[in-house]
Design goal:
With 297 residues, this protein is an alpha/beta fold. Helix content is 43%, strand content 22%. It has three domains: 66 residues, Winged helix-like DNA-binding domain superfamily/Winged helix DNA-binding domain (Arc Repressor Mutant, subunit A); 99 residues, D-Maltodextrin-Binding Protein, domain 2 (3-Layer(aba) Sandwich), CATH 3.40.190; 101 residues, Periplasmic binding protein-like II (D-Maltodextrin-Binding Protein, domain 2, 3-Layer(aba) Sandwich), CATH 3.40.190. The chain has twelve helices and twelve strands.
Length: 297
């Protein structure tokens, strides 16, 4: 049987097969859902067998779909090896760098990428920013060269290197009763309402671990999906919050919040360079990797 399909169709199929969700695949690929559906329809027609099956509201891969998923991954791995070879031949005069970051890292990574691009102006940079769960999905699929996270997953074989401090602080509305007080106890803080990031957030995981280890139970009133929402929520009096000092930056006064002097805070954490264990970096990716490590000095 001769199957004629385009590289684009295979790329679309890989995303849909990984997510088992047409909408999420379309979002990742920056395509419309009808475009994704059309690409899958054409590929299914070329194969001559169904690739997906619907059971209730859930989507599953058929046997043919599973076989194609394996084959597509092999094709992409071979293509990535070819691209790496070409990059090595070009050296750093050209090439492409793919970086994926968790949402809080957007407050400093673009600046670092800007510095790197000024040093290597011919390098094409692609930056993917998403919540931690989505970045882990990309990491599992090996879609990018380098990943930057504050809480790498522990269930995968990874190369993990710290390169920058990521302190967490407790913030409150300006004018709060605790503002200006020193060495506030965790017991006192626990009497206040708290808002926090969504489930799976690295900041949330670190804060939960810190308080649990000290047998402190927080009065959580709300989950919010972004650092901007957290800051606005705190300023509006919804509660206190733990957040990365990188996300707060120098805008505390302007935003109407203050950093509290709480025992155990700032909570010391790090930003990490994360790659699959054993992954061979291209010349460009290795240069950016070393560039990030140089920021420690």
């Amino acid at each position: 049987m001769s199957i004629h399909s385009t590289f684009r169709q295979l790329r679309v199929y890989e995303a849909v097969a990984r997510h088992l969700n047409f909408t999420r695949a379309a979002e990742e690929l920056h395509l419309t859902q009808p475009t994704v559906s059309m690409q899958i329809k054409e590929l299914t027609s070329a194969v001559g067998m169904p690739l997906f099956e619907q059971v209730g509201k859930k989507t599953f891969l058929t046997q043919a779909g599973l076989e194609l998923q394996t084959s597509v991954r092999e094709v992409f791995d071979a293509w990535e090896r070819f691209e790496m070879t070409v990059d090595n031949l070009r050296g750093l005069s050209r090439g492409r760098l793919r970086v994926a970051i968790v949402s809080t890292a957007k407050y400093f990574v673009p600046r670092l990428l800007g510095e790197f691009s000024r040093k290597y102006p011919e390098v094409e940079v692609a930056l993917e920013e998403a919540n931690r769960d989505r970045i882990i999905e990309r990491l599992k699929a090996n879609l990018d060269d380098i990943y930057i996270m504050g809480a790498p997953p522990t269930s995968m074989a990874l190369s993990i290197e710290p390169f920058m401090e990521n302190p967490l602080v407790v913030i409150a509305p300006a004018g709060h009763a605790l503002a200006g007080k020193r060495r506030i106890s965790l017991k006192r803080v626990a009497t206040e309402r708290f808002i926090q990031r969504e489930q799976g957030s690295g900041t949330r995981l670190a804060a939960e671990r810190f308080f649990e280890e000290r047998d402190v139970v927080l009065n959580i009133k709300m989950d919010l999906g972004s650092n901007e929402a957290i800051v606005h929520g705190v300023a509006g009096g919804l509660g206190l919050a733990v957040m990365s000092n990188h996300a707060l930056g120098s805008r505390a006064v302007e935003a109407g919040v203050v950093v509290l002097d709480v025992q155990g805070f700032p909570l010391k954490r790090s930003w990490y360079i994360v790659t699959p264990e054993g992954k061979k970096l291209s010349v460009v990716a290795k240069a950016f990797h070393d560039f990030l490590l140089d920021t420690r000095s």
